[in-house]
Model the fold of this input.
Amino acid sequence: MTAIETTAPGTSRARPSFYLKYMVEPYLYLSPAIVLIALVMLVPLAIGISYAFQSVNLLRPFQTGWVGFENFQTLWSDRKFWLALTNTFWWTLGSIFFQFFLGLGLALLLNTQFHGKRLVQALVFLPWAVPTFLSALTWAWLFNPTIGPLPHWLAAVGILSEPFNILGDPNLAMWGPVTANVWFGIPFFAITLLAALQSIPGELYEAAEIDGATVWQSFTKITLPFLAPMIAITVMLRTIWIANFADLIFVMTGGGPANSTQILSTYIFTTAFRKLDFGYASAIAVALLGLLLLYAVILLVLRRKLVKI
Amino acid sequence: MRGLIGAISAMAILAGSAAHAETLKLVEVITSPERTEVLKKQVEAFEAANPGTEVEIVSLPWGQAFEKFATMVAGGDIPDVVEMPDRWAGIYKDKLVDLNGYIADWEYGKTLTQKTLDMGRQTDGKTARMIPYGFYLRALFYNKKLLEEAGVSEPPKTMEDFMAASKAVSELDGKYGYCLRGGPGGLNGWIMMAATMNGDNTFFDADGKSTLNQPGSVEGLQFLIDMYQNGYAPKDSVSWGFNEIVAGFYSGTCVFLDQDPDALIAVAERMNEDDFAVVPMPVGPAGKAFPTIGFAGWAMFDTTKDKDLSWKLIASLSSPEANKEWAKRVGVIPIHEGAEQDPYFKTPQFAGWFETLNGDQYVPTVMPTYLEQFGYFADSIALETSQEALLGQISAQDLADTWAEFLTEEYGRWKAAQ
Amino acid sequence: MSALRQSSPLAVTGKYLALAFYVGFALFPLYWLAKIAVTPDKLIFTEGTALIPSRFTFENFRTVLLATDFLAYFRNSLIVSLGTAAITTCIAAAAGYAFSRFDFRGKRLVVAVMLITQMFPLLMIIAPIYKIVAAVGLLNSLTSLIIVYTAFNIPFATFLMQSFFDGIPKDLEEAGMIDGCTRFQALRKIILPLTLPGLGATLGFIFTAAWSELLFALMLINSNDTMTFPVGLLTFVSKFSVDWGQMMAAGVLALVPSCLFFLFIQRYLVQGLTSGAVKG
Done:
């Protein structure tokens, strides 16, 4: 803060007051975002969450009644809910784990020089551009032994005893959607991490090399810290999205067989749009919301502790 | 002077109301491109016969039709006329107009088969919430070539023959007996087997309890479980839906398929007509078979602004000529009497269904779609539990008990509301 | 990476192998999609597992382009996606900048609210949104989709832009402001050019998110004129059969705009920061 402020004659440039700077200016930048979200999402969100405390049938809107925590009590003793919760956990963990590490590897590769880089970059981005409905159908196709090659290849390699459709096997079914999800999600991490990698100043690496650092050392001491904020954001958001991501599972297995691939999100869908019980569906959604909030808080706290930037 | 002004304004009003086109909204829910073409043509004929009327057709994608329509209705975007499958009638019944009065005054009302009228009134037995446009009746498709290869001389007539024939075909490499529908929409198969082995297809006994866990019914459920666990049905079939079973049939993977006339269209396109035939479902120990019968029809919502005009549209679509054309393209059995005399329906393929309709030992089973939660039962509860049974996670008795419990409760609720 | 380190031939081979694996993995299902698109109907099931169909046909593409409404669907999707991408990026850049540069009262709350909008399943709020859109009279219009998509994508885009802004030292605007321009001018002239990779990434993501969105397009749009192409894909699935050939042909065609868009913004994505922006 300069003590003496000189302004050239003729210009009237008042220094923004502290109040303006602290309180109002940020909101000027934020206002379009806030307005839009408030109008379009917050009100429906509030309504949606409120369903959890009511008994709501979609087609009989006048028969709603407030039932307090009754839906949640039913939820607690619902065997299918706990099954779906476990499945959601494995689904999310499996998908994120493979997507992230493979995506990171791809980003690191793309950050180097090689022939045909622009072409490769465009090609590896394609999976993200395919509508999930279509990619789910394609993967279901690939896993079907009558019309797809994968079961035969897997059997030839020895992973399967004979070519059959893993989507029909309760123990293996989840791997189908997970594979499709990994295929779909690698570009997401690759692109975001690549963009972050691009912003790391090159001199840092040169300086490190001169100092004799190994590849691993420059990776952990330079790359990772710069990437950490981006990693935190993308992993958190992607996990939240995956937990809510019903499309692939719905199209590939429908939640079956025998609920082995039923995740909370598909359970919410069938409760809301087949049983038309929006109250109970909302209760499940609120439970999921609570868990995801917890996860986000943990992640943010971890990030603050581990990252010094 | 005043008279002149009055006359002119009267004429203006008249001209205005005539020029103002009446628009009706028609929603179709079992959409497919060829069907929409036929519907458009029939609607155009209606528009031509009623100048000044415009009909807007909204076609919902078949896979998402239920939730999309529910959202539309909940959001207030309610059509005048809608294609109403039997399963949905139980849910929307309170919003649909009673058509009995219109039918009574209709010139073609008398040629409607009794079954049509009964089904239209199924929600409570009296109010005609819709006019069905045709029936889906189950019969047994079989692959002639495969049966010959397996050494089975003729199609099965009894359940034992059925199991034996399936076993024989399964001995062939890579071939299976039954195209089991273990996935979505498979409930009809289970109910048929249960009823056939039980010798009775009433769903609820005199006390209002479900008959599904009676010993005979459990035997029927066990029949299908054995079929799967013995390997007479493909391992993947636990999650097979409509497309998969039909594909399994015409690709020659499994030899028996129980389906409605609409599957005939898909099969006939891809198989030589000499390679397959259709016979009635095999009979059980009581000498009877109970193929399921379903239907869809046209209904009118009570929020329509012009009930008479909406009725005219429904009547036009349900007239004998229009209905016959529709039934052919859609693959259902038409609703007016005398339809089986039409050359299209006299083919050997259709013989299976008409034999079913006309034979005494074949008693059509009507699913209890008047129960409000029946759709949810069929699509969720029955699906998941039947898969668990096929996979050996629960027994046939447990399966039957779960179903019986749910249905008994639903029935009780329905009865109380009557 | 630095140019000083000599890469061993082993490392280089390894690198190309790894790249080949990634490209192969990404392209394989798409190859299959294209394969089905060029297989004649009758052979789709019988030749299912073959790697190359015995006969090719471009009939499916012709039908999709000429006999269905797909060109209109593509046009609609293009309008919605470009609109959403442009508007969202602008709004998110502003919001991301605010998060990055300011520490203000209520910041935590706004972030929390943004996160929460991502956590609640969209299908639960379809019904209220439907009613609101219907009440405003925007049902069946592309505008409603643009608005809804923008609202839903703002949180992600904001966090993304925030990360990029975080990577640029604050001194840069301070330097600019001391030199006499307003913060906004500093933002425009100095900072934004440096965040081109970020803008590029954001545009790319929002475009594809809007391009392939299914749920809201399905529920909010009824008429054929305003249908977007993912919903159009659903019309290939009917009770009797799934028109695989045509559906896959439409899918292949749909990849073209996404690919083109991404090629276009690639230029901005690969630009790195020039070192030495902040002297000393």
User: Anything to note?
Assistant: Chain A has one domain: 75-306.
